[in-house]
Amino acid sequence: MEILKLGSYGDDVKEVQRLLQQHGYYLEHQIDGDYGRNTASAVQEFQGGRLNSRGELLEPDGEVGGETWWALNHGSGLEQRSHIDPLIPEGLTPKRQKVLDFIADKYRTGVHEIPDGSNGGDGVDDITGGWKVAWCAITMWWAFKNALGIEPWGDKGQSAAVRNIYKAAVANGTFKEKGKYSPRPGDVFIMLYKDKNGNYTGKGHTGIVLQVSHDGTVFVTFEGNAGNRLACKSRKVSQETLVGFVNPFPVEEQTNNWKRGVMKAGSGATGVGGTR
Questions:
Q1: Claim to verify: residue 226 and residue 241 sit in the same structural domain
Q2: Pick from 8, 5, 45, 6: which is nearest to 24 by CA?
Q3: Does residue 181 share a domain with residue 240?
Q4: Which of 131, 133, 141, 224 has the most CB within a 10 Å radius?
């Protein structure tokens, strides 16, 4: 199958644009068959929280090959479940525990978009306050605001975009570059996307770290707007678009005496988030 990318044109591109629009990512409402920068950016946003046919996370490269085609046609529901048991590790410090307890309780209600691609409905509006926007970043603001009563990256409007969380964390010294830091449960992961020239597009994806492997190379997450729902995923630190983590907790919350280990995707665990 031909890979669709910048410069591609035709009916297949129109179908990609239609499917992106269906999932709430192609907001310009222009289905013209021209694979330009807006389409490439929308593809990256879609890929950021989606699984391929083998249950592995897509790498957000902005191109549509066979696995992204599959995901576009199976972008929500059972096919996008990682089947991870979202257990909160033992031995966490109090504030990290509160954040994870709070978002885990919301996850158990099966939050998902109704209808697909609406960025709203069935618990999503509780998180966003009714804003019809891509909601992974605002989920982070919502979790910390409600669990701890703090806004680590500014108010709701300032925290509604991944790039803003990243910039604020760099400015206040809480951003930790990957490769120089091992994530802890309760930290926030940051993915940032680049265009074909290697420049950041301003788009990305984010979520809260739940579990970390013994060697620190794999982590399990809670993340909003992943498969059109609040999801539990397993990610690798080596993922190209992952740039690092945000650790907004005070000094007394930096202990490493918590239980390491992850539940792998496809391990047979059913999770507790319903059928979405």
A1: yes
A2: 45
A3: yes
A4: 224
Say if 5 falls within a structural domain: no
DSSP class per residue in 203-222 = EEEEEEEEEE-TTSSEEEEE
The confidence band for 147, taking pLDDT boundaries of 50, 70 and 90, is: very high
Domain assignment present for 270: no
Whether the CB-CB separation of 232 and 222 falls below 8 Å is answered with yes
Taking the C-alpha atoms of residue 129 and residue 150, their distance in angstroms, rounded to an integer, is: 17
Q: Are residues 40 and 167 in the same domain?
A: no
Q: Are both 59 and 86 inside the same structural domain?
A: no
Respond yes or no on whether the N-terminal peptide bond of residue 60 is cis (omega within 30° of 0).
Answer: no
Specify the CATH number for the domain of residue 246.
3.90.1720
pTM, 2 dp: 0.92
Domain boundary among 75, 93, 115: 75
Give the model's pLDDT for residue 261. 94
Q: Tokens 């091992």 — which residue?
A: 182
Integer Cα distance of 14 and 254 in angstroms: 49
8 to 23, 165, 198: CA distances (angstroms): 21, 33, 19
H or E stretch at 243 = strand 242-246
Boundaries of domain holding 134: 82-253
Structure tokens at 271: 């999770």
User: What Rg value do the Cα atoms of the chain yield, rounded?
Assistant: 18
Q: What is the residue-averaged pLDDT of the chain?
A: 92
Alpha-carbon distance of 223 to 246, in angstroms, equals 14
Helix (H, G, I), strand (E, B) or coil at 131: coil
Number of domains in the chain: 2
| Other residues' Cβ atoms within 10 Å of the Cβ of residue 270 | 10
Those residues with Cβ within 8 angstroms of residue 254's Cβ, 6 or more apart along the chain or in another chain: 93, 184, 247
* Contact criterion met (CB below 8 Å) for 235 and 188: no
For the segment 83-91, the average pLDDT, to the nearest whole number, is: 92
